[in-house]
Structures are given as structure tokens and as C-alpha cells.
Input
Amino acid sequence: MTTNLHSDREVLHGGRKLAEAAGAVILLHGRGASAADILSLGAEFDRDDLAYLAPQAEGHTWYPYSFLAPVAKNEPWLSAALGRISEIVEDLLRAGISREKIVLAGFSQGACLAAEFVARNAGGFGGLIALSGGLIGPPGTKFEYKGRLDGMAAFLGGVDPDAHVPWERVEESAAILSAMGARVETKRYPGMPHSVNRAEIAEAKKLLDALVARDRR
Output
């Protein structure tokens, strides 16, 4: 189904209705993909007590160049994409979903966007699931973010080698998020294609299971 949030732009919505959901997962698709593609991942998580929201990027891309390009080359598209996520978060808060029950998740370009959003907006989120992605910036970037991610669970998975996302950036991103106080787990999958695999889905599901179990204690 679809729902229109505060941004007045269509967002695909699956899973439980917001008023009845135990939490919400914002799903961000990769370059060339669609909201419908990434929304199908929600069904794989096998948690029908959660709401899943998947915005569609204009032209099927959140920003035009590699996430390893100079950040300025991806502006103003990057800032617009981050702003769109902020709008969705604000709508979720207004719907009664607290920040600690909101998880940011994505694949490839969407994973980069999810990780960057959480780092730039540190504090209170329920978790991060970044599949084949990492923080945004060229090699040698000195990543500096304000705020803390104390206690937030994060799973970063990726294949290696990966022509799009070097494993070194996944590890670097995990180290930055850990230094900000997140509880980060990384898993490397050698010799696999640039796609979401069953082992990553299982790890993501564990994070979501723990989130809901914690809130029900």
C-alpha cells in the first residue's frame, strides 16, 4: 500500500499500521532500484508487528555520483535526500512512534544514506541496518559528527570484493559509529555478488527482534 507523509511525496508503506506498530523501519533503496524493491525486504524480516516505509528517490537515485566522490559533487541531492528522511522521521514521531523505535535500513546507496543520516542525527534511534554501504565521503575523509549513539544497535554487512563499496569503508564506518557509542556488528561475505544475502537478512532480523523484545520488557 502507499501513504503520503508530511513531505507530500509518495512513500510505500507495508507491515503494520502506524497506530498499531511496535516500531518502524525506514527502508532506503539502492541506485537504479525502487521503493517497491526495498519494501519487499521488510517481508523477509518476518516481523509483521512493525511498520515499513520506503520512499522513492527521484530518477531512482538519491545522489548522482559515488558515495566515495567529494561530498560537494553530490550536492544538493545528498542534502535533499537527508532532508527527506528527516521529514519521514518527524511524521513518525507525530504518529506516536518514538525515536528509539525507529530503525534506518538500506542497501548499497540506500545503506550509505542510512548510515550518514544516523551519524549526522545521532541520538535516540532504535538501530541501523546498512547492507553494502558506509559513511559518505572520499578516501581520506576525516569523519567528524556531533552527538552520541550510546547503546544504538547497528549491523553493517557487505561482500568482498565489491566494486561499489570497498570493505575498508565498511570497517572504517563501523569504527566511527562505535566511537560514537553504537553497538556495532560487522559481517563480511567473501566472493558473493553485490546484493542482499540470506545471512544478512538473518542478522538484520536479530536486531529487529531485540528491539521489539526490549520495548516489551
User: Anything to note?
Assistant: DSSP finds five helices and eight strands in the chain.
